[in-house]
Design brief:
By secondary structure, this protein is of the alpha/beta class. The chain has 3 domains: 63 residues, Orthogonal Bundle (DNA polymerase, domain 1); 167 residues, Beta Polymerase, domain 2, CATH 3.30.460; 244 residues, TIM Barrel, CATH 3.20.20. The protein is 42% helix and 13% strand. It contains 25 helices and 17 strands. The strands form 4 sheets. It has a 7-stranded parallel sheet. A 5-stranded mixed sheet has the order 2-4-7-6-5. A 3-stranded antiparallel sheet has the order 8-9-10. A hairpin with a 2-residue loop joins strand 8 and strand 9. Helix 9 crosses helix 10, helix 14 crosses helix 16 and helix 23 crosses helix 24. It starts with 30 loop residues before the first helix and ends in a 13-residue tail after the last helix. Bound molecules: 2'-deoxyguanosine-5'-triphosphate, calcium ion (2 copies) and zinc ion. One calcium ion binds next to loops. The site of one calcium ion (CA) has 6 residues, from helix 12.
């Protein structure tokens, strides 16, 4: 569970469905924004040595707010009692939420920011730097930013501070080098919480007939630099004005008659372009990018005597297309290329040869093969998780609680798993449509052995293995460790294979080709973990795995019923990895899916056995 890498990592919840027709989505600060303010308060309180319980209260409230399917700002206005009834939100925090809902700001935060050592919160995001160290760095060395930290460490100043030393100094440098901490990009799932309500707001603007996000967001990159919003309208001025009137706009960076750029509360930048219908498709193609893809398409156009721009497809001065994105592709004799593939990574050649993959989509998904319950570190019970998965229309859900070594996650031992299996049997007897699969997320020890005995493993339907420690082994040893685990005859899935964190941790280094070849040969599936801050395998690794014959699974690793909806982010990552629905195990029916597992152990008939 996330607790062991919680610092600086944000938990993201699916945003409200886009189809929901209500103004509440745009009537106040997004849940993500309220949560962000609370997290900042928690960090600043931590820096000022506040009572740890007070710090936790803000962290917990941030999570509750973020996970709420309803708009907390609307709740604050319409039903103060419901607000106070939220878990972990008493009178005090409810008052703070009401203040944010009303003003978009929190006086306490401004107050804390004034007294905190400048720049110290940024330092908290570096693994190994806690509040005490951040304070020292800021107060004694005047370090105000990650760049400043790097300079101070390189100059050998950091080691002179009490409790630091040369080893800590070089570890800090290593962290700064291996993470993307310095690059301010937004997790896509987090940007969605700000962007999707804004799209809904713009789509409902007078005169606007369509609105959508383009850019890296539409290409489903795991992080985005900014949002690129397109609106279709003949009245640019009115659309721009509506955009600037959006209550969450904090700063206007630029404005014109058909475009504007703003910063939203929370810091995310949004570029707006307003286009008339005859240009909308061409602009959508242009602003979806990537730049490299655009250049390739434009060059193909030029070879045919065409000019392709954001305004349309032209032969001389005559417009021959641009209303619809497909017209751009048609002009250069290409079929529609899904946005996720538009990186100039071979998609144009594949399209020419009619070899584009049948990309997996959310509708194809029939079940989830990694999830946790309160038996280890989940927040909902076995029954609650199963009922939620059934309500989503799934055929199956594997509950894969942790094994003992992952102690912070409250892992189960053999007896614990056996007890859980009996409860799963009873649950399955009661459930009508869903089958709960007995599973475990088995920790792989540093030597490649597994954290659960074979007899227990043999009783499970889904044995998912993953690494949670010793991520920094040298690549050859890491490869050997993983290969050893995947060769275990009772293993089905290799979960979050690299242990990477988006924007945070590079993950284990190993020979991906070697591991994939073993997985393909052994019939072990590899996971695309859908947690927005994991997305592991990433796009390129997943694509390589597919090329090498690995079957993938997309799972949420849900620690609550809400997180079951993370599937969306995993599917998007898979699409960027060119993953064909035929190569995703959980697009299959329960029976087909289990036969994939069975191929690994043809003799085993244990699946019909009751524990
Ligand atoms: P980001 O925001 O860093 O995550 O990445 P993008 O891809 O969203 O890039 P952004 O926001 O700078 O621009 C949006 C799209 O506009 C980009 O994907 C392609 C198009 N674009 C921007 N600048 C150029 C350019 O100089 N040439 C061409 N062909 N297209 C461009
Ligand atoms: Ca962008
Ligand atoms: Ca942009
Ligand atoms: Zn795990």
């Amino acid at each position: 569970m996330p607790v062991f890498w919680a610092r600086g990592i944000v938990r993201i919840m699916p945003s409200r469905s886009r189809s929901r027709k209500s103004s509440s989505a745009t009537a106040g600060p997004a849940n993500a924004e309220i949560a962000r303010i609370f997290r900042e308060v928690a960090e600043l309180l931590e820096l000022s040595n506040a009572n740890p319980f007070r710090v936790r209260a803000y962290v917990n409230a941030a999570r509750v707010v973020e996970e709420s399917p309803q708009s907390i700002a609307s709740m604050a206005r319409e039903s103060p009692q419901a607000l106070r009834d939220l878990p972990g939100v008493g009178d005090d925090l409810a008052g703070k939420i009401e203040e944010i809902a009303r003003t978009g700001k929190l006086a306490l935060l401004a107050e804390l920011s004034r007294t905190a050592p400048a720049g110290a919160t940024e330092l908290l995001h570096v693994p190994g730097i806690g509040p005490r160290r951040a304070r020292l760095l800021s107060e004694r060395l005047g370090v105000r930013s990650l760049a400043g930290l790097e300079r101070a460490a390189r100059a050998g100043h950091v080691r002179t501070l009490p409790g630091f030393g040369a080893k800590t100094e070089s570890r800090i440098l290593a962290e700064l080098a291996t993470t993307t901490l310095t690059e301010r990009r937004w997790l896509r799932a987090r940007a969605a919480q700000y962007g999707e309500p804004l799209v809904e707001y713009m789509a409902n603007a007078p005169g606007v007939t369509r609105a959508e996000l383009a850019g890296s967001f539409r290409r489903c990159r795991e992080t985005v630099g900014d949002l690129d919003l397109l609106a279709e309208s003949r009245d640019g001025r009115a659309a721009v004005q509506h955009f600037l009137d959006y209550p969450q706009v904090q700063r206007v960076l630029a404005k014109g008659t058909t475009r504007a750029a703003v910063q939203l509360a929370g810091g995310l930048h949004v570029d707006l372009r307003v286009l008339p219908p005859e240009s909308y498709g061409a602009a959508l193609h242009y602003f979806t990018g990537s730049k490299a893809h655009n250049i390739a398409v434009r060059t193909m156009g030029r070879a045919r005597g065409l000019k392709i721009s954001e305004y349309g497809v032209f032969r001389g001065t005559r417009r021959i297309g641009g209303r619809d994105e497909r017209e751009v592709f048609r002009a250069v004799r290409l079929p529609f290329i899904p946005p996720e593939l538009r990186e100039d990574r071979g998609e144009i050649e594949a399209a020419q040869q009619k070899k584009l993959p049948h990309l997996v989509s959310l509708d194809d998904i029939r079940g989830d093969l990694q999830s946790h319950s309160t038996d280890s570190d989940g927040r909902h019970s076995l029954d609650e998780m199963a009922e939620a998965a059934e309500a989503m229309g799934y055929e199956y859900l594997a509950i894969t609680d942790h094994t003992p070594t992952v102690r912070v996650a409250g892992g189960l031992d053999r007896a614990g798993f056996l007890r859980q299996m009996r409860r799963v049997d009873r649950l399955n007897a009661r459930l009508r449509k869903l089958t709960v699969l007995k599973g475990a997320e088995v920790d792989i020890h540093a030597d490649g052995s597994l954290d659960l005995d074979d007899d227990t493993l043999a009783r499970l339907d889904v044995v998912l293995v993953s690494i949670h420690s010793a991520l920094n082994l040298p690549a050859d040893r890491q490869t050997a460790r993983i290969v050893h685990a995947l060769q275990h005859p009772l293993v089905h899935i290799f979960g979050h294979p690299t242990g990477r964190l988006v924007n945070g941790r590079r993950g284990a280094q190993f020979d991906l080709d070697a591991v994939c070849s073993v997985a393909a040969g052994e019939g072990v599936l590899m996971e695309i973990n859908a947690q927005p801050e994991r997305l592991d395998l990433d796009d390129l690794a997943a694509r390589r795995a597919q090329e090498l014959g690995v079957t993938l699974v997309i799972s949420t690793d849900a620690h609550s019923v809400e997180e079951l909806h993370f599937m969306r982010w995993g599917v998007d990552q898979a699409r960027r990895g060119w993953i064909d629905r035929a190569n995703v195990a959980n697009t299959r029916t329960l029976r087909q899916m289990l036969s994939l597992f069975g191929a690994r152990r043809p003799a085993a008939s244990r699946r019909t056995r009751r524990t």
